[in-house]
Amino acid sequence: MSNEKKTENGLQAMFATIVIPVLFVVAWLFYAYVLGNPANFEGGNPDNHPIKEGIGKWFATIYKGGVIVPILIGVNLIIITFSIERAITVAKAKGKGRVDVFIRTIRALLVSDNIEGAIAECDKQKGSCANVLRSGLIKYKFVKGDHTLDKEAKIAAIQKELEEAVSLELPMLSKNLVIISTCASISTLIGLIGTVLGMIRAFSALAGAGGAPDAAQLSIGISEALINTALGIIGSCIAIVMYNYFTNKIDQLTYGIDEANFSVVQSFASKN
């Protein structure tokens, strides 16, 4: 199991390394060829105003947000992609059925000293809690028949096995969450950069030759500022919600693992 978990953690790291650059490339292509499609602009020229109606109007409006827009789109794609990846991982870690019901079942089997039945239940559940418990129960079964160790040494051996199993499971649960939390922080900041660039353009238009503001450039500057602000805030909001959601789910799983581990150790201590 140790090698399997290390391999899985390595694959998750490789996934992040490959996917993030790919998503930024996809974001740039979407910005250049979908949002910047000449059909979205009057006269088929991206330098002109957006068309008056249809979805092309909105695409062209977002395109006018400038060079920061594809970066923000990339950040939003990263948030969505890694939220889906974490949702799949957490669902897999929960295993089959409710964790609290599974723990009660294991406790009942330990009370009746049915170690083989408890291991079989772990094989059925197939979640992170079950993986940890299975390692502990196998060690439980082994040390129970080892007459060369005293009670304290046996309990220490079980605890050590459970701790090692937890150290392999927990990194898999929290891995890549740092990407979502980072996006939550930088999305607003990148949007703010776009906002500042848009306001610079707007004020440049106000300082036009002869004191007469360039209305078109003023409009573009304000639009650029607001579009980048909106995209940055949207990305940050989604990332914060998803990060807190997954953190809560992982905390619940961790609590379940700790509770199950305590049950195994206490069961052994009371029966031996």
What labels would you give this structure?
single chain; 272 residues; mainly alpha
Give a nutshell description of this structure.
The chain is mostly helical. The protein is 82% helix and 0% strand.
Q: What does this 3D model show about the protein?
A:
There is one protein chain. This protein has 272 residues and is mainly alpha-helical. It has one domain (1-272). The chain has 9 helices and no strands. The chain has helices at 2-35, 55-63, 68-94, 99-111, 115-125, 128-144, 151-174, 177-206, 215-271. The longest helix has 57 residues, at 215-271.
Q: Which secondary-structure class do the elements indicate?
A: mainly alpha
Global outline:
rod-shaped
Overall number of structural domains: 1
Count of individual beta strands: 0
Poorly predicted runs: none
Strand content: under 5%
Total number of helical segments?
A: 9
Mean pLDDT: 84
The gyration radius over C-alpha positions equals 28 Å
Order of helices and strands: HHHHHHHHH
Q: Helix fraction?
A: over 70%
Biggest beta sheet summary: none
Gap between N and C termini: 28 Å
